[in-house]
């Protein structure tokens, strides 16, 4: 008698499926990797910004003009004259108390969580590279002078989105709404940046700089089994990769600035 192979397969697999269904499952808790207890870099960036703003206000009171701002803001003519530090120093300078308050609130909201995941050194690299990239894009695309830490903060916003996306398996159902929230905040701020007097090119450059560094060197967690009931979460991105990624983002951004200056 001929037999139907599909029926045979079903009969063979049924006991296995039943056995699998009866296998008890167990929930195992895995602790999130321990990061820095205190967001020291976040606090340091806030402290430098507050101290710089105090000097700006003191200068206006004593001299009648903003000496730190004039020496450190992004200014194309000064950069063409060799003052390259102006591609970084604007991230600690601000044009007014509301400008400072908004940026410090954003840094305080985003910084501690990212710094815990990234660690002090990698988070500092993210902040500086995003700010640097933002000022370079602003230099290339806009002749207006500008200052403010929003270039770096937009980089943190991008890095937060990358972190949620790449580690979405560990966040479960919370990953999607959190990622949508990050993208919505970024879109709203880009729309607000279309208003006169706001350097949206700097925002875009900071976002791209943070995105590039976070994608290449941001934390990417996986679970390691140490024993039957002992699991740990590890970051699979090593220090060598972070160093190479940071150098790559910096050199590409610097090359873009150098090419712009050479073309003037």
Task: Characterise the protein shown here.
The protein has 264 residues and is mainly α. It has a single domain (39-262), classed as Rhomboid-like (Rhomboid-like fold), CATH 1.20.1540. The protein has eleven helices and two strands. It has helices spanning 5-22, 40-63, 67-72, 76-80, 97-118, 120-141, 150-166, 168-171, 175-192, 200-217, 239-262; strands spanning 221-227, 230-235. It has a two-stranded antiparallel ribbon with strand order 1-2. 33% of the residues are buried.
Question: Which SSEs are present, and which pair or pack?
Answer:
Layout: H1 5-22, H2 40-63, H3 67-72, H4 76-80, H5 97-118, H6 120-141, H7 150-166, H8 168-171, H9 175-192, H10 200-217, E1 221-227, E2 230-235, H11 239-262
Antiparallel strand pairs: 1-2
Helix pairs in contact: 2-5, 5-6, 5-7, 6-7, 6-10, 6-11, 7-9, 7-10, 10-11
Keywords:
264 residues, mainly alpha, Rhomboid-like fold, two-stranded antiparallel sheet, 11 helices, 67% helix, disordered N terminus
In percent, how much strand structure appears in the residues? under 5%
- Determine the mean pLDDT: 86
> C-alpha Rg, in Å?
25 Å
Strand order, largest beta sheet: 1-2
What about the largest sheet? 2 strands, antiparallel
Uncertain segments: 1-14
| Known CATH architecture | Up-down Bundle
How many domains? The number is 1
CATH topology: Rhomboid-like fold
- Structural category is mainly alpha
Secondary structure: number of strands: 2
By CATH, the superfamily comes out as Rhomboid-like
Q: What is the helix tally?
A: 11
Q: Roughly what percent helix?
A: 55-70%
Order of helices and strands, N to C? HHHHHHHHHHEEH
What form results from the Cα inertia axes? globular
CATH class: Mainly Alpha
């Amino acid at each position: 008698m001929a037999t139907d192979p599909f029926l045979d397969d079903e009969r063979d697999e049924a006991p296995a499926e039943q056995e699998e269904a009866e296998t008890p499952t167990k929930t195992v808790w895995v602790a999130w990797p321990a990061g820095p207890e205190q967001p020291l870099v976040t606090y340091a960036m806030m402290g430098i910004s507050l101290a710089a703003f105090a000097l700006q206000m003191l200068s206006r009171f004593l001299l009648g003009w903003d000496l730190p701002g004039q020496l450190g803001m992004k200014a194309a003519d000064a950069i063409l004259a060799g003052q390259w530090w102006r591609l970084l120093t604007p991230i600690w300078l601000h044009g007014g108390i509301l400008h400072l308050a908004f940026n410090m609130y954003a840094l305080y909201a985003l910084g501690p969580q990212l710094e815990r995941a990234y660690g002090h050194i990698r988070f500092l690299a993210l902040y500086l590279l995003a700010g640097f990239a933002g000022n370079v894009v602003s230099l290339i695309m806009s002749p207006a002078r500008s200052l403010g830490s929003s270039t770096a903060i937009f980089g943190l916003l991008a890095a937060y989105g990358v972190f949620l996306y790449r580690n979405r398996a560990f966040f479960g159902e919370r990953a999607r709404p959190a990622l949508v929230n990050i993208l919505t905040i970024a879109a709203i701020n880009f729309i607000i940046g279309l208003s006169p007097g706001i350097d949206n090119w700097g925002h875009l450059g900071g976002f791209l700089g943070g995105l590039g560094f976070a994608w290449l060197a941001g934390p990417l967690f996986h679970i390691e089994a140490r024993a039957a009931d002992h699991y740990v979460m590890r970051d699979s991105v090593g220090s060598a990769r972070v160093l190479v990624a940071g150098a790559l983002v910096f050199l590409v951004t610097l090359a873009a600035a150098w090419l712009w200056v050479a073309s003037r």
